[in-house]
Specification:
With about 600 residues, the protein is α/β, with parallel strands linked by helices. It is built from 25 helices and 14 strands. The strands form 2 sheets. Strands 7, 8, 9, 10, 11, 12, 13 and 14 form an 8-stranded mixed beta sheet that branches. Helix 2 packs antiparallel against helix 3 (about 40-50), helix 4 (about 55-65) runs antiparallel to helix 6 and helix 9 (about 130-145) runs antiparallel to helix 11. The longest helix has 22 residues, at about 90-115.
């Protein structure tokens, strides 16, 4: 008899389907508190930690949750995945050792079920560990399976291609990869995951330049589009011509993923074209929806609103760059554009793909900080490539936007917010507390001091630290310096308990500035400050988590930082679901 309420198991499924690994981890933790032997909760808690990007912690949960006792293919194969992910980051003898451990786990899983998933991973990790002859025997066996030789879905088809590649038959593998990506169930995410696996194998094959290009081209992920363009009135006679030009570029590039706003005119045309070919549309609006409709959709005529609603509802995601209303400030549009560029570049980085800009532009130079010309100039500054579709400068005039009632608002600015605290602080005794205040808080203060005017305000209470910092790049530098100063080893050296440590969250967005009469100093407040505060308690010890806007604004500047996608977090209480990344450097 199942002692777990079916509604709780449904919550597991909902968290998995939405990609909210934070929620999945918390829900399994709650269940395991009352039902420590439940096999599904034990497995899913470990899987959640693995997908949050902390393989070392996931391995600890694997042992603590006794996953090998569960005895399913999924449970045993998860250990193989964890060792494989760790191996991909390692080098030398340590990498070989981890690939060997991964191979052993996948082979054990395969003996339990004879599934092709564990089988092909056993073959590949054996190959990556250096046992080429054994790997090719395993791969040949996979290739002979009826469900792989006659695939009914993308994963079976890709497994057949991978088996051929492990055997060194590059041209045949390229043909099979090309066929796999044409399957109707193939998604950009699936193809990107396959491409990463192909890259690992290709590094260890003696390929000519021609073979390498043939192989990589066969499974190259879809490029990611950042789009922008001029607004124009509905019914303009050149709309069909523009739509054809958009389709030609999308056909030529194979682009299926696009990021941009949904203003009347070029934006909606591009969005409709992406959706028509079954692609992913990620819509980003600069401020509240009603104000956006008033300023950027209805001005082109009432016909655009229905098309806006259609593309919005079909989009894979809808993001608001700010929670503010329109304040008649072009800086909001400029911020939104830079955010969109960063999101496109982030996605391209995750998929090991390319990003390009698709601009419907009249060729006129920028007259301000926002607009199509300004977007093209910013993308060029970042070193990006732009495909331009020309549009006449002489366009039918737009309607005047109905102006919203003006409100007196305090000054606002785009700033980065840092929150940090010490996990385990409440358990410190008086002696440890003295060490903490002297060493830990002292080191944090020195880091903030080194950055001088970049730190606009700072505060602390107990173990918590809050700072507002001028730019994302400076905030990232400060967070990484704090992390380096307070690594677990150094904390243990001063007598603090093992397993305790700092956790840091970073966010970026528009915040308001005011004078705090109690403190006699300026202060910053707003929704975006609260967002950063809500994330920080969920960050693993020793890690730095950032919101997607923070990562995007860093990515849209030239930098040496690295972001790893970790999942979604539901902040509740009207703060919505936020996508989070783990911050590191390109050396990590």
């Amino acid at each position: 008899m199942d002692l777990i309420d079916p509604s709780i198991r449904q919550r597991f499924s909902n968290a998995l389907a939405s990609g909210d690994m934070f929620a999945l981890f918390e829900r399994t933790r709650e269940v395991l508190g009352n039902h420590p032997d439940d096999p599904q909760a034990r497995y899913l808690q470990t899987l959640a930690m693995a997908r949050l990007g902390d393989e070392d912690a996931a391995l600890r949960f694997y042992e603590r949750n006794r996953l090998e006792e569960i005895g399913t293919e999924d449970a045993i194969a998860l250990k193989g995945r964890l060792f494989k992910d760790l191996a991909a980051r390692a080098t030398g003898a340590r990498q070989v050792e981890l690939f060997q451990k991964s191979s052993e786990a996948y082979r054990a899983a395969n003996r339990m079920s004879d599934g092709y998933f564990s089988g092909i991973n056993a073959a590949t990790t054996t190959f990556l560990a250096g046992d080429v002859e054994k790997a090719r025997d395993l791969a040949a066996a996979i290739g002979r399976r009826h469900d792989v030789a006659n695939p009914q879905d993308y994963f079976a088809a890709a497994s057949g291609a991978e088996a051929m590649l492990v055997r060194g038959r590059v041209e045949e593998a390229a043909d099979l990869y090309h066929a796999a990506r044409q399957r109707p169930d193939a998604s950009p995410g699936m193809i990107a995951s396959t491409a990463r696996q192909v890259g690992l194998i290709a590094e260890r094959l003696p390929l000519t330049d021609e073979q390498r290009e043939l192989l990589l081209a066969s499974i190259r992920p879809s490029p990611v589009v950042h789009y922008c363009g001029h607004m124009f009135r509905a019914g303009w006679e050149i709309e069909d011509q523009l739509a054809r030009s958009i389709d030609e570029i999308l056909d030529e590039t194979g682009a299926l993923i696009a990021y941009g706003p949904l203003a009347c005119g070029a934006d909606i045309l591009i969005a409709e074209a992406i959706l028509a070919r079954g692609g992913e549309l990620h819509a980003v609006l600069p401020f509240g929806e009603e104000d956006f409709l008033r300023t950027s959709v209805r001005v082109g005529g009432s016909e655009w609103e229905a098309r806006y609603i259609g593309t919005r509802d079909a989009a894979a995601s809808l993001t608001f760059a700010t929670q503010m209303n329109h304040v008649d400030d072009d800086e909001l549009f400029a911020y939104c554009s830079k955010l969109v560029m960063g999101l496109a570049q982030l996605r391209a980085g995750v998929m090991h793909s390319e990003a390009f800009q698709l601009a419907v532009w009249d060729g006129k130079a920028a007259a301000g900080v926002a607009g199509t010309a300004a977007d093209c100039a910013e993308w060029m500054r970042q070193g990006g490539k732009t495909r331009v579709i020309s549009i006449p400068a002489d366009r039918p005039p737009l309607e005047s936007a109905a102006m919203a009632e003006k409100r007196n608002r305090p000054p606002w600015s785009l700033r980065s917010i840092l929150f940090a605290d010490f996990a385990g602080f409440s358990r410190l005794d008086e002696d440890h507390l003295s060490q903490f205040l002297q060493v830990v808080m002292g080191r944090i203060a020195k880091v903030l001091d080194r950055h001088g005017e970049a730190v606009l305000t700072r505060n602390s209470w107990g173990d918590a630290v809050y700072a507002v910092i001028t730019t994302p790049a400076q905030a990232a530098e400060i967070a990484l310096e704090i992390q380096e100063e307070l690594d677990p080893e150094s904390l243990q050296q001063i007598g603090l308990p093992a397993g305790d440590g700092m956790r840091i969250s970073l966010h970026h967005g528009p915040i308001f500035e005011h004078f705090d009469a109690v403190q006699g100093a300026r202060t910053f407040y707003g929704t975006e400050v609260t967002v950063a505060a809500r994330i920080e308690p969920r960050v693993p010890v020793g890690a730095i988590y950032t919101t997607q806007p923070f990562a995007a604004m860093i990515e849209s500047d030239l930098n040496n930082y690295h972001f790893e996608y970790v999942g979604k977090m539901d902040l509740a209480k009207n703060y919505g679901v936020r996508i989070l990344y783990r911050l590191g450097t390109s050396k990590d």
